[in-house]
Amino acid sequence: MRFSQAWIVASKDFAMFTKKRNILYTIIIFPLMITGLLSGVTWYIQHKGSGSVSPAELTTLLPAFTFFYFILAAVIPTTIASYSIVGEKVEKSMEPLLATPTTDGEILLGKGVAAFVPAILAVLGTSALFMGLCDAFTVGKLGYYYFPNESSAVVLFLMVPLGVVVSVEWNVLVSSRVSDVRIAQQLGSLMVLPFAGIYVGGEIGLVPLGDTNDLLMIAAVLAFILLVMLYAVQAIFQRDAILTRWK
Amino acid sequence: MSFSVSEGEVFGFLGPNGAGKTTTVRMLCCLISKTSGEARIGDYDVGNDGDSLRIRKMIGVVPDNVGLYEALSAYKNLDIYGRLYGCPEPRRGENIQRTLTMLDLWDKRDAPAGTFSKGMKQKLAIARALIHEPQVLFMDEPTASLDPEAAKTVRDFILDLKKEKRTIFLNTHNLDEAQRICDRIAILNTKLMATGTPEDLERMVGSRKIVIKVERVSDVMLDAVQKRFPGAKISVDGVQFAVELPDAETKTPDIVQAVVQAGGRVHFAGVVGSTLEDTYLKLVRSEQ
C-alpha cells in the first residue's frame, strides 16, 4: 500500500470539492452554524435567560453540547464521501482511474482520506471555536475554564475520528449500491441516527454518558463496528465488482 | 481465442455489440479478472497480481466512456493522471504540453473539461492515456459518437501514433475505420472468428474478380480469355464480363491484352471482390 498514490487520489478529490458549493457548505457553513447556535445558547442562558443557570447545570449542559460534534462527525462525511464515489460513477471516471497503476486499496484509502481530512478539520476546528467561546462565556460563573477537559478530549480526539471513519465506511457501502449523488447522501445520512441515538439515550438515561469511562466504552464499540465495516468495504471495493456489478 | 499483437502494430478488434470486445480489453488492461486462460502483455502475465501494476504502468487506456473530471481543467486532468502513472516533473509538464498541443487543445488547457465538445473530450481522454508515454495503447471505440470531422482528427492522430511505433489495440465496430487504420484485424463474436490483414479478410469469403467493361461482349473475346486462362470462371452481364481467378490483380494486364487482341475495345478494367464488410457479416451471421 503506497500512501503517495492514495494521496494523489485524495488531492484530486480535494480539488473537485473546491468546485462544489454543497460540499463547501457542508464543510464550512454547517459546522459554523452549529457552533454559532450552541455558543449562542450558552451565552443566552447566562445573560438573557429568565433565571440564572447554576454552575452544576452548566457543567451538565456543556458536555452535552460537546457531544453534538460527535453527531457532526457522522453528518459531514456523508456529503463528501457520497460525492467522492458516486460522483466518479456519474462521471464514469472510475474505469480510467482503475486503469492506472494504483491498487484498489490505495484508491479506497484515497477516497477515505478525502472524506476524513475535511470532516475532521471541520469538526475539530469548529469545536475549538465553540470551546473557546464557551470558556469566555462561562468562566465568570464557573470560576475556571471548563474546556479543555478529559471527557471532551475523548469525544473530540477519539470518538469523533472513529465516528468519521465509520460514517465514511457506511457511505462507501451506500455509494456502491446507488448511482445518484442525492440518493447516496440521503441514505448516507441515516448514519446520523445511531449517533443521535447515543446522545438521546444519554439524555434519557438509557446510555451511560456520565464519565470518561462510559465514553471510552462507546469508543471501543465504535472501533469494533469500524473493523467489521472495514471488512465489508474492502470486500465490496474490488475492481471486478466496481466495473461489473456496481450500479 | 488465441492471438498475438506485434510491437508497433495497430490491431483492430471488430465485433458486434455484446461480442466481448470491451470485456477482453478490460481483462488485458487488468481492470477485471480473467476466469481462465493465459494472456501476456510484454513480459508480464495478465492476472498475476505482481505483474498487474507493471502492465498498467506500461499501457494507456482510452475507455468507451471518456470519464474526465469535468469540473477540473484539461491541464489538471492530465496532471492528476501523470502523477498516478508516476511521471515525474518536469517530464510530466512537457508531456502535457506536447500531447495537448498535438491534439490542438493547448489553448484550452485552463478550461474545465465539462465545457468541452464531445470531440474535444475524446481527444483529452486520448491525451490522458498518453501522458506517461505508454508502449501499448488500448482504445475502446475511440470515434464512436463523434462527428465526421472529430472522428477524422482522432483517426489521423492514431495514424501519427502508429508512426511513433506504438502498439495500438483498437476496439471498434466501424469497418471503414478498421480497414483504414489497422495492420491486422480480429473479428470477434463471443469467440474469435478470424484474424488477418484487412486484405486477407476481404479475400476470405470469396475470390476476387476482374471486371472488364467493353463496347460489346463477343464470344471471340470470351474464348480468347478462356484460352489464356483455362481455369477461369467467366460470367457476362450486359456490356461487361467478370473473370474469377486466383491472384486476380496480377492477371488484369493479360486479360486486357487478350480482349484487345480479340478485337474488343476496353472501357474499364478493374478488380472487385468481397469486402471486409462481406467477410464480417458472413462470419458474424454464421455464428448467430
Polypeptide structure, described:
In chain A, helix 5 packs antiparallel against helix 6. Chain A has one domain (3-244). Chain A has 247 residues and is mainly alpha-helical. The radius of gyration of chain A is 20 Å and the shape is elongated. Chain A starts with a helix and ends with a helix. Chain A has helices spanning 3-17, 21-47, 55-91, 94-98, 104-142, 150-177, 181-188, 192-203, 212-236, 239-244. Chain B has 288 residues and is of the alpha/beta class. In chain B, helix 8 (198-204) crosses helix 11. Chain B folds into two domains: 10-202, Rossmann fold, CATH 3.40.50.300; 207-272, Alpha-Beta Plaits, CATH 3.30.70. In chain B, strands 4-5-6-1-7-8 form a six-stranded mixed β-sheet, with helices on both faces. Chain B is elongated, with a radius of gyration of 24 Å. The mean pLDDT of chain B is 88. Chain B has helices at 21-28, 49-58, 74-84, 91-102, 118-130, 148-163, 175-181, 198-204, 219-228, 248-261, 276-287; strands spanning 10-14, 40-41, 44-45, 59-62, 136-140, 167-172, 184-188, 192-196, 209-214, 233-237, 240-244, 266-272. The longest helix of chain B has 16 residues, at 148-163.
Low-confidence regions of chain A:
none
Number of helices of chain A: 10
- Which structural class matches the secondary elements of chain A? mainly alpha
**Overall pLDDT score of chain A:** 88
How many distinct folded domains of chain B? 2
Largest interface: A-B, 25 and 30 residues
Oligomer: heterodimer
Put simply, the count of helices of chain B is 11
Portion in helices of chain B: 40-55%
Q: Can you tell me the CATH architecture of the largest domain in chain B?
A: 3-Layer(aba) Sandwich
Counted beta strands of chain B = 12
Helix/strand order of chain A: HHHHHHHHHH
**CATH homolog superfamily of the largest domain in chain B:** P-loop containing nucleotide triphosphate hydrolases
Mean pLDDT of chain B: 88
The top level CATH class name of the largest domain in chain B: Alpha Beta
Low-confidence stretches of chain B: none
Biggest sheet record of chain A = none
**Count of distinct strands of chain A:** 0
